[in-house]
Amino acid sequence: QLQLVESGGGLVQPGGSLRLSCTTSRFTLDQYAVGWFRQVPDKEREGVACISTNDDSTYYSDSVKGRFTISRDKTNNTAYLQMDSLNTEDTGVYYCMIPGITWGQGTQVTVSS
Fold first, then answer.
1. What is the pLDDT of residues 9-42, one digit of tens each?
2. E-only strand ranges, the chain
């Protein structure tokens, strides 16, 4: 049984936007830090964004800073990754995770014209 489920991936043209969602019936997300990672073939998994549990402070990798926004909605127990100004280097499988606890199965994002 999957504990975190990502959705919202797909094919988008360069310059476009996507919003990824991470939902769970197992955890109350506002009680945990939540992170988003991405995996490109033949490269190490890269952490792109994280939101803390205590004050909702956020962290972004340099490669996405200013373009991606991580957030969470307590009412529907969902974490989001809003991705704007996408480019081909953003292509990959995106995973949400709770540090030290669990990962989702990933959702494919493809940026291509």
1. 999 999 999 999 999 999 999 999 999 999 998 8
2. 5-7, 10-12, 18-23, 34-39, 46-51, 58-60, 68-73, 78-83, 92-98, 102-103, 107-111
